[in-house]
TrEMBL record:
Keyword annotations: ATP-binding, Nucleotide-binding, Transport
Origin species: Aliicoccus persicus
SMART domains found in the cross-reference section: AAA
GO molecular function terms noted in the UniProt entry: ATP binding; ATP hydrolysis activity
Sequence ranges assigned to domain ABC transporter in this UniProt record: 2-232
Keyword Transport: yes
The name this protein goes by in its record: ABC-2 type transport system ATP-binding protein
Record flagged with keyword Ligase: no
């Protein structure tokens, strides 16, 4: 569906894409993950031929990209990071405008706009102007504008940034339904939990390069860290941290809900040594399990960076 090979894109002295390689198969959600400035938006814009690139090859639907190829454009939907809505058009009219760029038949368009409104659940807001909508509802409208013409290939650039939890869950379910309906989706996000839940495969980007690609299991199997220990300590967070920071081979400590997630520098770390240490230090726990590396752990190992909001 998408074939990107060795693409280089420079902005004067900045190399935004450095031999970037990326493939997406039909009917998958592929996560494009990376820190701010790693080149995600540049990569998407090159794939959409909104930007020219210096070298390499990009093919969509098996053909080289060309900004004037309307047949290909009709098969693609884009939901950009920045909201692209007309303030003077209401919800229905905004969707109708964007759908009208690809669908000229009025009866067909009416049906598609209605389906998009139902899809993002904006029926009761159809005559609202964008400025009357909350941030989450505006994002839903942005999605409806990008997908109303029912494209086969959809680019979603950080669609859940700054939306409330309810709208986010609604969008995630909607994106899964798009895949069920046969779409291929390129999804960029900073939320790695979200990527784990939603994406079939992940491409991890750093400094304009794809540093790893694969399913979560493939990525987990290629890591040197064994994942983390999940421990529910009885003592206070402060007391636990004070003890753990004395243990030299811990690379990361994270507290989520009531649990500590502890990652060790090496996969050769002996659990028995660590348990002996916490016992000698007087810590007690109610539960201890071993977890495979999360996408966050993998990201940190590959890029040396945490990907946070
Ligand atoms: N028009 C431009 N002129 C010069 N440099 C640019 C331009 N657009 C992007 N860059 C630089 O290229 C690099 C990649 O930027 P890009 O916007 O593609 O990253 P990103 O991963 O999408 O970041 P974000 O998550 O913040 O949107 C950055 O170093 C950025 O500063």
């Amino acid at each position: 569906m998408i074939h990107v090979e060795n693409v280089v894109k420079r902005y004067k002295e900045v190399i935004a894409l450095d031999h970037f390689t990326f493939n997406a198969e039909k009917n998958e959600i592929i996560g494009l993950l990376g820190p701010n400035g790693c080149g995600k938006t540049t990569a998407i814009n090159c794939m959409l031929s909104l930007l020219t690139f210096d070298s390499g090859e990009i093919k969509l639907f098996g053909k080289p990209v060309n900004p004037n190829d309307n047949d290909i454009k009709r098969r693609i939907g884009v939901v950009p990071q920045e909201l692209a809505l007309f303030d003077k058009l209401n919800v229905y009219e905004n969707i109708d405008f964007f759908c009208g760029l690809y669908v000229t038949d009025k009866t067909k368009r009416k049906q598609l706009v209605e389906e998009a409104i139902q899809f993002v659940d904006l029926d009761k807001y159809r005559s609202f102007m964008p400025k009357k909508l909350s941030g989450g509802l505006k994002r839903r409208l942005n999605i409806a504008c990008g997908i109303a013409h029912q494209p086969e290939l959809i680019f979603l650039d950080e669609p859940t940034v700054a939306v409330d939890a309810q709208s986010r869950n609604f969008m995630i379910e909607g994106i899964k339904r798009m895949r069920e309906n046969g779409a291929t989706i390129v999804y960029t996000t900073h939320y790695l939990d979200e990527a784990e839940e939603l994406c079939d495969r992940h491409v991890i980007m750093d400094n304009g390069k794809s540093v790893a690609q694969g399913t979560l299991t493939e990525l987990q199997n290629s890591m040197t860290t064994e994942g983390s220990l999940k421990i529910n300590f009885v003592e206070t967070e402060e007391a636990v941290n004070a003890v753990l920071k004395k243990y030299p081979s811990i690379s990361r400590i994270e507290k989520k809900n009531d649990n500590f997630y502890i990652t060790f520098i090496s996969s050769d770390e002996k659990l028995s040594d660590f348990l002996k240490f916490i016992d000698e230090e007087g810590l007690t726990y109610t539960e201890l399990t071993s977890e495979k590396p999360s996408l966050s752990d993998i990201f940190l190992e590959l890029t040396g960076k945490e990907l946070r909001d």
